[in-house]
Amino acid sequence: MKRLIKVFIIVVFVGLISACADSNSPNYQYMPNMYEPVGYETYQEVDFLPNASEAMAPAENTIHRGWLPYEFANDLEGKEFARMQPSPLDSLALEDNMSKGKELYTIYCAICHGNLGKGQGSLVKREKILGVPSYADAARNITVGSTYHTIYYGLNSMGSYAGQLNTTERWQVSEYVMKLKQDLTK
């Protein structure tokens, strides 16, 4: 008899538990954020960080690592000042600068300006881009400084290459362009 009472109590207990459980909704959770994470958008304002938007702006008077600001503005006056600027590269390493400049010119510039600087690159020949002048044009008074300025800011339909070339590489390409101009005017 005692055994029958024990079995009856267990059956009633299991019946009560299954009657209270709802299979459509989960049970109560202790610390629900541990199970269901809260999604935050990057740089959004949140309650616990009152000045979170400060992360979007860099600190004042700072520059990016590996990047030097250019001292001349992107206007005609800035280009005239840049025209008078000489190349800061070491003249003792002229051969290294020219070989690296030629390599970079071939990668980035020759497709429009041509391998010899005549303005007849493959895009010009296929008429994808029109109006690329030769470096030998008398009206083009280009110097190493103005070439650097053009590479840095771009000119007309040519975009800026400041993102693709670092400071030294831009000067190397500028020196190589001056060599091409010298070769064309001989």
Structure write-up:
The chain is mainly alpha-helical and 186 residues long. 42% of the residues lie in helices and 0% in strands. It is built from 7 helices and no strands. The chain is elongated, with a radius of gyration of 35 Å.
Provide the CATH architecture of the domain at 76-184: Orthogonal Bundle
Helix content: 40-55%
CATH C-level label of the domain at 76-184? Mainly Alpha
Radius of gyration: 35 Å
- Written as H for each helix and E for each strand, in order along the chain, the element string is HHHHHHH
Helices, by number, come to 7
**CATH homologous superfamily classification of the domain at 76-184:** Cytochrome c-like domain
Tell me the span between the first and last alpha carbons. Answer: 121 Å
The global form is: elongated
Number of strands: 0
Which stretches are low in confidence, meaning pLDDT under 50 for 5 or more residues running?
A: none
Approximate strand percentage: under 5%
Fold-level CATH name of the domain at 76-184: Cytochrome Bc1 Complex, Chain D, domain 2
Q: Major sheet: size, sense and barrel closure?
A: none
The secondary-structure class comes to: mainly alpha
Mean pLDDT: 80
